[in-house]
Amino acid sequence: MAELHDLTALEQAEGIRSGELSPVELTDHYLARMDRLDDTLGAFITRTPEIARKQAADAESEAVAARREGRELPPLHGVPVPVKDLNQVAGVRCTMGSGALTAYVPTVDDHVVDKLRAAGTIMLGKTNTPEFGLPCYTENAIAPPARTPWDLERSAGGSSGGAAAAVAGGLAPLAHASDGGGSIRIPASLCGLFGIKPSRGRISVGPLLHDVTGLSTSGPLARTVADAATLLDAMAGPMPGDPYTAPPLPPGETFADHARRTPGRLRIACLTGAPIPDVDVHADCRTAVEETAALLRELGHQTDELTLPPDDGIRYAFTRVWSVMAANRPVPEDGEELLMPLTRYLRRRGAEVSAMDFAGGMYAFRALAQTIADGLMPTAGGYDVILSPTLAQPPFPVGGLRNNADPQAEFAAIGAFTPFTALYNATGQPAVSVPLHWNAEGLPIGVMFGGRYGDEATLISLSAQLEQARPWAARKPSVWGSLRSA
After folding, report:
1. Which of 22, 98, 155, 159 is catalytic?
2. Radius of gyration of the chain from Cα atoms?
3. Are 390 and 421 in contact (CB under 8 A)?
4. Which of 22, 84, 155, 476 is catalytic?
């Protein structure tokens, strides 16, 4: 028998609009699953059942009134959407995954949280994240590690590992996430989900913790393309003070519309070799790209091999800029000794980066963005999309990348595991991870598509076409049904 968490987010929303499903019932269902499974999955740092139940009751009243008055509700009205604990929710502690900030309670919402409130979504809690979102795993000193539901001995990735564990484990229908170097796409790949890193400026990062580098953005994690596109619609839009603004869709269009459209015939460049030196790409990850390329050709698209000469310049630039971002995170005067070894290492390194070196890193990003943009020009010789592995290796064991004794070696290992993802943070282009492949061990292996700046629509349409050709949402880990509600 199907249960509420078997429904997609859009199916849940339709049930709420019709009156067949209550937001209160739906919220209680997910809160019960969190009580039973969260200690195992490590999805949440802070649970907010009181807030969730109050919001659900308000959403139920609004749904009743809307039906009575014959007016429309937002597409995700009454649907639970947890918020990553790097983002601020007024009145709810925001630890940023750090033992130094466990007492910090913001007084204002981030703009993206305002938009989620306006969309009528329900906040179940704040999802797990590594300290300040710095590594590609979700292990910190204040919560259990986030684990992929496909193998509880392995990591859900990071830094949106808690969000991914929640969605893949059936603790939330979809989730807010964020991505500064791959932090949506990495856990999407490791947890068998669809994730979108939007174009720079598509979603506001204000009002308080603006990322002046432009690397980071919020985005959706979901089981289906349509769910993710609809959540992107809810979160998108410029706000006063934003340093970047992505070009809007034509009037009257939504990203959800593009999940229902075919992309047309595309020219797709296929990249399997890592763009940085001395990185081996696992056979499972190469196979995922090769099988995806074959499927693309079956669907009528043109695929061409692409080779990027390995270049350490971008790795060095990213390391400098990432270290400065770590050093700039607000830490109480007495909190430095509470930080994780990797965080302390990056903060020390960032404090030593000169203004000229930081500016040089930013200029390297701009040069890379121009090179990629030139290759994606909509001309006779340009590509529409770039296909690559999301990651260089399959899911890794919890603790497998941490090296507290040598954080410099740990940071190098993180870079070798994620050689593809940071490319699109540096350029500001949109990118998605699509769960089309599972290896012989039953572990998900994502593939990544990158597109032109501002053109999430093509990536969404292409992903939806692939989803229709090779559906994945019905494939669920054993934990999905191991603790069904009474």
Report:
1. 159
2. 21
3. yes
4. 84
Classify residue 182 by burial, with Cβ atoms within 10 Å: 0-12, 13-18, 19+. Answer: buried
189 is catalytic: no
Residues 396-401, mean pLDDT to the nearest whole number: 98
Mean of pLDDT over the chain? 96
Q: Outline where DSSP puts E strands in 28-162.
A: 44-47, 83-84, 125-127
What's the pLDDT band for 484 if we cut at 50, 70, 90? very low
Q: Taking 60 as the threshold, does the pLDDT of residue 225 lie above it?
A: yes
Q: Which residues pair with 386 in a beta bridge?
A: 269, 450
**Residues 6+ positions from 395 with CB-CB distance below 8 Å:** 148, 150, 151, 154, 155, 157, 190, 443, 444
Asked if residue 189 has a cis previous peptide bond (ω within 30° of 0), the answer is: no
- In terms of pTM, does the model score above 0.70? yes
Distances in whole angstroms, Cα of residue 142 to Cα of each of 99, 103, 179, 486? 6, 12, 21, 31
Is 159 considered catalytic here?
yes
Active site residue 197: no
Antiparallel, parallel or unpaired: β 194-197 and 431-438: antiparallel
Let me know: does 197 contact 424? Beta carbons within 8 Å. Answer: yes
What residue type is 428 in one-letter code? G
Own/partner contacts of 50-58, CB < 8 Å, gap of 24 or more, are 51/92, 51/123, 52/27, 52/80, 52/122, 52/123, 52/124, 52/125, 53/24, 53/27, 53/28, 55/23, 55/27, 55/122, 55/123, 56/22, 56/23, 56/24, 56/26, 56/27, 56/28, 56/122, 57/23, 57/24
Dihedral (CA of 280, 282, 283, 287) sign: negative
Cβ contact 201:107 at 8 Å: no
Q: What token pair was written down for 386?
A: 């770039």
297-305 mean pLDDT: 97
pLDDT in tens, 106-149: 999 999 999 999 999 999 999 999 999 999 999 999 999 999 99
Please pick, among 22, 160, 183, 463, the residue that the annotation labels catalytic. 183
Residue 296 structure tokens: 């693309």
pLDDT, tens digit (0-9, with 9 covering 90-100), for 36-60 = 999 999 999 999 999 999 999 999 9
Angle at 322 between CA 321 and CA 323, to 5 degrees: 90
Show the CA angle centred on residue 169, arms to residues 441 and 447, nearest 5°: 50
